[in-house]
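Severity: low
Component: inverse-folding endpoint
Summary: output formatting inconsistent between runs
Steps to reproduce: submit the following C-alpha cells with default settings.
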C-alpha cells in the first residue's frame, strides 16, 4: 500500500513537471521471495540447538517443531501456554516491537504440544524472570517485546555459523516445518 501511494504521488509530481522520472518504478512490486528459504534437516536443527542457550533454544524448538513464525513466538504470553494440558494458543504477533493480530486468521489457533516441547517451555519458565500470565514468554530485558531481526543477527545467525550451517533465518525454521509437514 505504501509503495502504491508513493507511486501515485510521484506520478502526480511528474505530471506537474516537478520531477523527470518516477523513482518508485524501480521498487520491486512482488511480495514473492526472490529465493526459497533454506530447509534444515532434523540433524541440522540439532546442531543449531547445541549452539543455543535458553531462551533462544526454546524459540528455535517452537519454530521448527510447531511451525510458528517468529512474530507469533515473540507474541506469546504465559497465559497462552498451558503446560499441564500440553497446549498453547496463538493470539497475537509481534513485528518490529508492535503487537498485533497473528499474520492470518488461520494462524490464531490452539496447538497441542509434544512432551519435549512442554519440557523445553517448562525449563524456560523455571528460569524466566517474568512469569505472570500477561508477561511475554520471550521478553526483552525490561519485560517488553523483542525484535526478530536483532535476534536473527545477534543470536540465530552466529549460532548457525558456529554449527557450520551457513546463512539461515527465522523463516528457514518455519519453512523446514512447513515443507516437512507436506511430505
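Observed output (run 2 of 3):
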Amino acid at each position: 500500500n505504501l509503495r502504491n501511494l508513493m507511486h501515485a504521488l510521484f506520478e502526480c509530481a511528474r505530471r506537474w513537471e516537478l520531477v523527470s522520472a518516477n523513482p518508485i518504478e524501480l521498487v520491486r512490486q512482488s511480495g514473492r521471495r526472490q529465493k526459497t528459504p533454506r530447509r534444515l534437516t532434523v540433524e541440522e536443527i540439532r546442531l543449531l540447538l547445541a549452539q543455543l542457550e535458553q531462551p533462544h533454544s526454546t524459540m528455535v524448538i517452537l519454530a521448527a517443531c510447531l511451525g510458528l513464525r517468529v512474530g507469533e513466538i515473540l507474541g506469546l504470553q504465559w497465559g497462552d501456554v498451558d503446560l499441564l494440558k500440553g497446549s498453547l494458543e496463538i493470539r497475537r504477533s509481534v513485528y518490529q516491537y508492535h503487537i498485533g493480530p497473528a499474520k492470518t486468521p488461520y494462524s490464531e489457533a490452539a496447538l497441542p504440544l509434544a512432551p519435549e516441547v512442554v519440557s523445553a517451555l517448562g525449563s524456560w519458565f523455571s528460569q524466566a524472570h517474568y512469569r505472570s500470565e500477561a508477561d511475554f514468554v520471550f521478553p526483552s530485558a525490561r519485560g517488553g517485546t523483542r525484535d526478530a531481526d536483532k535476534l536473527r543477527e545477534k543470536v540465530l545467525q552466529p549460532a548457525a555459523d558456529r554449527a557450520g550451517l551457513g546463512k539461515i533465518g527465522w523463516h528457514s525454521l518455519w519453512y523446514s516445518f512447513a515443507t516437512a509437514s507436506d511430505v
